[in-house]
Design brief:
The structure is a homodimer.
Chain A lengths: L1 E5 L3 H10 L5 E6 L3 E7 L5 E8 L5 E4 L3 E6 H8 L7 E6 L5 E7 L5 E8 L17 E6 H12 L4 E6 L3 E8 L2 E8 L12 E4 L3 E6 H7 L8 E6 L5 E7 L3 E7 L15
Antiparallel strand pairs in A: 1-5, 1-7, 2-3, 2-6, 3-4, 4-18, 7-8, 8-9, 10-14, 10-16, 11-12, 11-15, 12-13, 16-17, 17-18
Chain B binds a DNA duplex through loops.
Chain lengths: 266, 266
DNA sequence: CCAACGATAT
DNA sequence: ATATCGTTGG
């Protein structure tokens, strides 16, 4: 038996919206620890990991570990029926092929109950080792989203380079090229506007903007985003979810070929 | 000769917008009593009835009963040319094949005059008998609209069930099912937020959401909607127009078949 | 948080 | 041209 209550129901809407651009169907895992998910995107290039810790819920009951395959678009469709300040209760039963969402309006005058069919999904859950990164950049999530969107209109890939002074995002395309430098800056009115660079080693890596622009769908979840970089390791783009956990996206860097791909010879 | 003046001209825009999704062409009837319309939707399933009483106009002159066939989309097109605070005067002449709209800006600095061609329409005007209903639900029109929209994303039909405690809207579709319960509640800050249930007999009826979602185009006309239900009778969804009359939509319930439509045999 | 307006997509 | 979505303002 499974029963999760979240007073700030809008959070769940944001979580699903953050992921469904990348992943259509995913298996959610529920245990005493929390509510989590791990999934590759449909082209098996990027990975997303979600954790909502049990302590973050206003009520959390999970009698035994359970895995539930859900279609994220259908899930979003149902969650869209919740008011933005509705309380959401998620219920599941062992062995059942459905789960249910209950939405309670703040005044309790409107109570909605949605039942959703589960799906069979082969959930390949990888262990993701903790790693030490050469550089960790923290910046406003909206700024990162804007940069990825802007660069995406110029080129297909972004080179992220970190130095002590800051972080540089570069791209190049048919119509020209672009470099956006964000320098470290903690001297702001509010901490969520800060940009900080924690650098052990300078690093410069290339990523497909297409995926970066999917990752930024998680922007509403957090004011800040954390980008962890190391050569040879997938970048981690993390959006912390206040009091509850995170959504993390992993993407392997492109192997830097000699200059442009316009060169026909290997 | 016919001359109707309405200081709150935006009302006329809302009335036409409320109807034109359902009905393309309609015959407006004008008499000493008022300005009215009755029309079936194009698939002859739903019926709409409009009444704007003569007393509600700021000037009302109708020398003899007259019927005017109008294309509602064309009418909307013209009315869209009126400012939201404009005073609208509607004029017609017996025997003429056109009518005219005059828009006066509040400051009288801009006076527009639009002439619209009438059309021949066979206006089959039914008598709609007053009926006694098993249950009458009153609720905020925006809430009703939201419910119909939400359920429309899950299923095709809605079951409306009324008990003493409140009203329940249910649907079922490929991805799952939904129940939304609104309980009676008069204890609110403002009367237009109230939900009241006047129940003589419990009732549960099924309707096509497609039509319900057309009816809710009338939402801007009134803060409250009234839903009158009886077995064997069409539901009446009514939006009152302050001081003037109403727009009423009628829709026959679906005959409840034995469970699902997945059964191939009749 | 709800409503109106503008922009975009069909 | 119309309907829906997203954004901005109250």
């Amino acid at each position: 038996m499974l029963e999760l209550r979240l007073v700030q129901g809008s959070l769940l809407k944001k979580v699903v919206d953050a992921i469904r651009d990348l992943v259509n169907d995913a298996s959610f895992d529920c245990s005493a620890t929390g509510f989590s998910l791990q999934a590759m995107d449909s082209s098996h290039v990027a990975l997303v990991a979600l954790l909502l810790r049990s302590e973050g819920f206003d009520h959390y009951r999970c009698d035994r570990n359970i895995s539930m395959g859900m279609n994220l678009n259908n899930m979003a469709k149902m969650l869209r029926c919740a008011g933005n300040d509705d309380i959401i209760t998620f219920k599941g039963d062992d062995g059942s092929d459905t789960v249910s969402f209950m939405f309670e309006s703040p005044t309790q005058d409107k109570i909605s109950d949605f039942e959703m069919k589960l799906m069979d999904i082969d959930s390949e859950r990888l262990g993701i080792p903790e790693a030490k990164y050469q550089a960790i950049v923290r910046m406003p999530s909206t700024e990162f989203a804007r940069i990825c969107k802007d660069l995406g209109s110029i080129g297909d890939t972004v080179v992220i380079s970190v130095t002590k002074e800051g972080v540089k995002f570069s791209t190049r395309g048919d119509i020209g090229s672009a470099n956006i430098v964000c320098r470290q800056n903690t001297d702001v009115d509010k901490p969520e506007q800060a940009t900080t660079v924690e650098m052990n080693d300078p690093v410069s890596l290339t990523f497909a903007l297409r995926y970066m622009n999917s990752f930024t769908k998680a922007t509403p979840l957090s004011n800040q985003v954390t980008i962890s970089l190391s050569s040879e390791l997938p970048v981690v783009v993390e959006y912390k979810i206040a009091e509850m956990g995170y959504v993390r996206f992993y993407l392997a860097p492109k192997i830097e070929e000699e200059e442009e791909e316009t060169k026909p010879e290997v």
